[in-house]
Amino acid sequence: MPLDRLDDPDHPTYGMGQAAELLDVPPAFLRSLDAAGLLSPARSDGGHRRYSRNQLDRVVALRTLADDGHTLASASTILDLRADLAETTEERDEARRERDTALDERDSARRERDEALGSFD
What we know:
Keywords: DNA-binding. This is MerR family transcriptional regulator. InterPro entries: DNA-bd_dom_put_sf, MerR-type_HTH_dom, MerR_fam. With about 120 residues, the chain is mostly helical. The chain has one domain (about 1-120): Multidrug-efflux Transporter Regulator, Chain: A, Domain 2 (Orthogonal Bundle). It is built from 4 helices and 3 strands; from the N terminus they run βααββαα. The protein has helices at about 15-25, 25-35, 55-65, 70-120; strands spanning about 15, 40-45, 50. Strands 1-3-2 form a 3-stranded antiparallel beta sheet. A hairpin with a 5-residue loop joins β2 (about 40-45) and β3. The longest helix is centred in the C-terminal third of the chain and has 47 residues, at about 70-120. The chain is elongated and about 80 Å long. The N and C termini lie far apart (about 65 Å).
């Protein structure tokens, strides 16, 4: 359904002017991020850049790190590493949940077995 895209943070919703205004940055800053390969906005049929909410969040984070003294390239690397860490942390947490479920199932099966064997005494 087309309205589902309104809730999709990856849907390219904002044009260059809107994005620049929302972020309070000059359009040239957004173009420079694209030219440097640090942000790859979608393109409309007419070739205009279209930005998603997630991309706007990335621009804010890049700008914040740049304001703290990082180059844009190092800021991009930091954001990529943070994303990798978050993904790895989620994978680890999921593995722990699966392990805990398996241990609970094993312990339950052992109790059932012990109860069943105990009824033969």
